[in-house]
Fold this sequence. Notes:
By secondary structure, the chain is of the alpha/beta class. It has helices at 3-12, 20-33, 47-54, 67-79, 93-103, 122-132, 159-177; strands at residues 37-41, 59-64, 86-90, 110-115, 133-142, 181-187, 193-198.
Amino acid sequence: MEIDKIESSAREFGIPILRTESHKILEEIVIKEKPTNILEIGTAIGFSGIIMLKSSNAKLVTIEHNEDFIKQAKLNFKKHHLIKRVKIIHGDALVEISKMLASKKYNEFFDFIFLDGPKAQYDLMLDSLLLMLKSNGTFVADNVLFRGYIEGNNTVPTKRYKTIIKRLDEFIKNCKNNPNLIDFELKTIEDGIIIAKKVNNEKK
Length: 204
């Protein structure tokens, strides 16, 4: 299955994947940064993982809570001959990140982190994710403007959405003002994407 077929299938069945411009941006960043170890929060059916792996020689650790998505992601990684470079973790992202930190195996291990999981948990994950990101590593977070609600472009329909919006707003502020992040950029295309670099501790 070609990557465009995966994309078409996801759109048809309402599976959340990268939008077109965000796809291009992620691809460009990975090609530029040449990561060796990538952590992804939110595997879905493997679309963004395939993009990152095809744009680099990296290995990928990716976390997903939906078992049906994982089954499809494994098939897609296999069809693209990438499965040997992928470790898929099934579970709640916050729980699995805590386990990874507790193991001490992943402290400052990843040089690229792509956050595209549960939006209400973004800010809760931030500090832990940065502990696993190497000095001068790249941090990317997708869907941070949440369908235009963060910028006030749409009327908020539910209390649950209000909670997500509040937490994402805090997340954006905390990324922008985080002493461990530099070169912060918020791209407002599509659903919004944050790009930043972790401070190079070796230069401090």
